[in-house]
């Protein structure tokens, strides 16, 4: 079982930046693709970004493309989400997850282990 712990959330003004981290335990981190999702109050959880097991391929939601960057460090067993030029619409709880099955990186059902989430709030 992989344990995931997100950190780095907080309050930022529109146009600002935050860097989220997701630290994992377990010996199999490098075998998993990893993803970030977010859930705003009253809304469904939505895909944000994903990265392949070796960091070679990345995927982004259209709403964050060009502003957010996902990366990973397999030695540190950590995945990151650099968020720049943030907007109030980015306000949500952000979750990282391991991709355990399926070919679609955008679907939450293909992710099996989830962190507890970290709150990100962007003020206008």
Residue share in helix? under 10%
Overall 3D form? globular
Order of helices and strands: EEEEEEEEEEE
Strand content: over 45%
Architecture overview:
Helices cover 0% and strands 49% of the residues. It is globular. It is built from no helices and eleven strands. A hairpin with a 4-residue loop joins β7 (68-73) and β8. The mean pLDDT is 96. Strands 2, 4, 5, 6, 9, 10 and 11 form a seven-stranded mixed beta sheet that branches. Strands 1-3-8-7 form a four-stranded antiparallel beta sheet, with no helix packed on it.
List the helices and strands and how they pair.
Layout (H helix, E strand, L loop, with lengths): L3 E4 L2 E4 L4 E7 L8 E7 L6 E6 L6 E3 L7 E6 L4 E6 L8 E8 L11 E4 L3 E6 L1
Parallel strand pairs: 2-11
Antiparallel strand pairs: 1-3, 3-8, 4-5, 4-9, 5-6, 7-8, 9-10, 9-11
Short descriptors:
mainly beta; 124 residues; four-stranded antiparallel sheet; seven-stranded mixed sheet
Summarize the structure.
This protein has 124 residues and is an all-beta fold.
